[in-house]
Structure prediction request, 409 residues.
Amino acid sequence: MTTSAPTTGKCPFHVPAELHEDFDIYLNPGHTEDPFKALAKAIEGKPRIFWSNSNPMAKQPGAWVLTRTEDMRTVMRNPQLFSSVENAGFSKLLGENWSLVPLEVDPPRHAKLRSWVNPLFASSVIPALEPEIRKTCVGLIEQFRSQGHCEFINSFGRPFPVTVILQLMGLPVSELPRFLDWEDKLLHGNDFPTKIAAAKQIKEYLLEQIADRRANPRDDLFTKAAFGEIDGEPLSEDEILGFCYLMFVGGLDTVASSLGFHYQYLASNPALQERLRKDPSLIPQAVEELIRRFSIVISHRRATQDTELAGVQIKAGDWITIHTPLSALDEHIHASPTTVDIDRKSKAHMTFSFGPHICLGMHLARRELIIAMEEWLSRIPPFRIKPGAPLRTHGGGVYGVDELHLEWD
Prediction:
């Protein structure tokens, strides 16, 4: 892979002036109140594909931003042309060169790694996990149900999915506050020293856990990684670390972020609450529509050779930023995209990515979201956002809700 094209100031020579736009996913005005609305406003009047000097994780000198689902799918289905290496870039923060597995791995190794990891998260294994997931969900709800109110994110939105994934990884739930602090600093830290420190702390902790699994094997994901094999050969040390790092970082943020937006919406729409309470069989399709509407993850690819995308010249080494929230807002694929319509005939979406790197945890995530809604609506009366209480959201690499106060009679 070659390096990015030479630059004049911040903008590469090959980027036409008319495609150079001021755009920053971390600083869009309004992202602390509604990052989706802020994103929609930020791309008003911009070209289908444009260049932004802002590029998360210091991927320089910037990146192409795609606004159409069609273009995103083209990029994501062509890993030979658009590489996933350094997609998240956590190892680069530490001056190292290991990859998140299988997220940042290209063919042909990617296919072998997916064939190893897919059975761990296959839809067929989820039913066996459901009783413990439901038990965790109910236990959390019962802690605050009689109070008539809760701060949703810290009472349920984070603890529920994070407890589930910690149990699967074999990590102590008692360490949840420390883990979330690392996660928040890594993904949402305001400066690179903060991100670097968190990245290092996570790595050191995971290496300790991997060593422990080798000495004391148990039935968890980290043990499976520590003793993982492909074609009779053990996974490399970097691959084991990369898999565990992805499980840790991905497991502590994405489902929790989705829950925040889903329940913010439900709290503001009593008619949908009532419909789902009367007919719980609609919950799976409601969850799928909310997943579509509130897509939260930003990812990246890097061109391996000169190419053309929708008439735009992409040079080898250029970064491409893929905003799945923009796909959720794409009128070319979704009629009235900002409307939550659980009867929508086609709920095809990019929330779990697309192509060979489609999210390996999507079956678990869907089941968690469905169980959460089933148990919440069966135990909590009609709920609403508490008047006058703070409501804070964030944009960035993973959109999320920071504070959401709910109440019920």
